[in-house]
Amino acid sequence: MKPNPFSLTAANGAAPDGPTGATVDYRLARAATLRAWKSGQLGRHDVCDAQRELHRNAEFCGQPTRRKCPVCSTADLVEVTYVFGPWLPKHGRCVTTRAEMQRLRHRASVSTGFVVEVCTDCGWNHLVRRYTLGGKRSA
């Protein structure tokens, strides 16, 4: 059975490549955006607006999921993780490997990770979750 990345255990750092602190889940905001699109309050161009760099990162660095795109229903979504914090570039770092995530988790400084789901076919993108990493103190 696959661990739930939204569980309290994962939020407290038990997951090998997940957050080490508080996690914010954006499923309700995602559902509201999709409801607004389906009701016609938002156009497809409003919800399928992935920027070129995000689309490129999704295509070449993203982690595939088995979830279908909620807009086009043809492609599987890809998750892209960005981390922002001290000693990282101003524009953040797109994390592509588990080893890189482990290094960030074990840093003394606190960073913030953002996971974005992206459809590489239609451009749908939405923030899935935000979490804190690092803050490990040596004993």
Textual characterization of the structure:
The chain is α+β, with helices and mostly antiparallel strands and 139 residues long. The chain has one domain. 27% of the residues lie in helices and 29% in strands. The protein contains five helices and six strands; from the N terminus they run αβαααβββαββ. It has helices spanning 8-11, 27-38, 44-47, 52-61, 98-105; strands at residues 23-25, 63-68, 76-84, 93-95, 110-118, 125-134. Strands 1, 2, 3, 4, 5 and 6 form a six-stranded antiparallel β-sheet that branches. It is elongated and about 45 Å long. Residues 1-17 have low confidence and may be disordered.
Domain module count: 1
What is the percentage of strand-forming residues? 25-35%
SSE succession: HEHHHEEEHEE
Say how many strands there are. 6
For the CA atoms, what is the radius of gyration? 16 Å
Shape field: elongated
Low-confidence residue ranges: 1-17
Helix content: 25-40%
Oligomer: single chain
**With helices defined by DSSP (H or I, 4 residues minimum), what is the helix count?**
5
| Class computed from helices, strands and strand pairing | alpha+beta
The largest β sheet comes out as: 6 strands, antiparallel
Mean pLDDT across the residues is 85
End-to-end Cα distance: 34 Å
